[in-house]
């Protein structure tokens, strides 16, 4: 009688290996997807916060006597603002002013030239689900950069504006404080 030496895996060993791989995949794949969503949402949140800081910086850079659309800052209420369109997942940064006679160059006004507006679109999978207080505009008052919900307002309810971003089921909130950087 001759004994043959067979090398390889038995069917039981292969089934155990496949079962271990399947279990590991069930744990790893959802965590990778959650990690990707969190990373994309945090990346956009950081970009969004950078835009807010930039607009705030512009508002603090305007000095008394500065010429704004034919008016000097001494004669006009000036702000930089962000307009949010939750239906289209966009926001626009623009310069807004109002003179002592009540003439205003706001977001929808003809006096606001296109080169004074900068549009941004949220990434495909991210949506702006809420803005509180429920106002579609945030103003950064010149020259102190204070945040308000309307042109000329000193403040807004609670001292902050909150934006909530969502990607799939994950939400992330940005708080814009009256005098502090966004968090």
TrEMBL record:
This is General secretion pathway GspH domain-containing protein. Keywords: Membrane, Transmembrane, Transmembrane helix. The chain crosses the membrane at residues 6-29. It comes from the Bacteria. The keyword Transmembrane helix applies. SUPFAM superfamilies: Pili subunits (SSF54523). InterPro entries: N_methyl_site, Pilin-like. Pfam families: N_methyl.
């Amino acid at each position: 009688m001759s004994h043959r030496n067979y090398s390889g895996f038995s069917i039981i060993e292969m089934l155990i290996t496949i079962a271990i791989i399947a279990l590991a995949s069930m744990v790893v794949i959802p965590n990778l997807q959650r990690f990707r969503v969190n990373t994309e949402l945090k990346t956009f949140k950081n970009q969004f916060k950078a835009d807010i800081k930039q607009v705030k910086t512009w508002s603090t850079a305007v000095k008394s006597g500065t010429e704004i659309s034919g008016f000097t800052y001494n004669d006009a209420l000036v702000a930089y603002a962000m307009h949010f369109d939750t239906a289209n997942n966009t926001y626009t940064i623009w310069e807004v002013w109002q003179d002592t006679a009540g003439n205003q160059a706001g977001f929808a006004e003809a006096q606001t030239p296109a080169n004074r507006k900068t549009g941004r679109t949220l990434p495909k999978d991210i949506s702006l689900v809420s803005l509180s207080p429920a106002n579609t505009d945030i103003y950064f008052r010149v020259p102190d950069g204070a945040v308000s919900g309307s042109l000329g307002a000193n403040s807004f309810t609670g001292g902050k504006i909150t934006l909530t971003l969502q990607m799939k089921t994950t939400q992330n909130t940005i708080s814009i404080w009256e005098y502090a950087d966004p968090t």
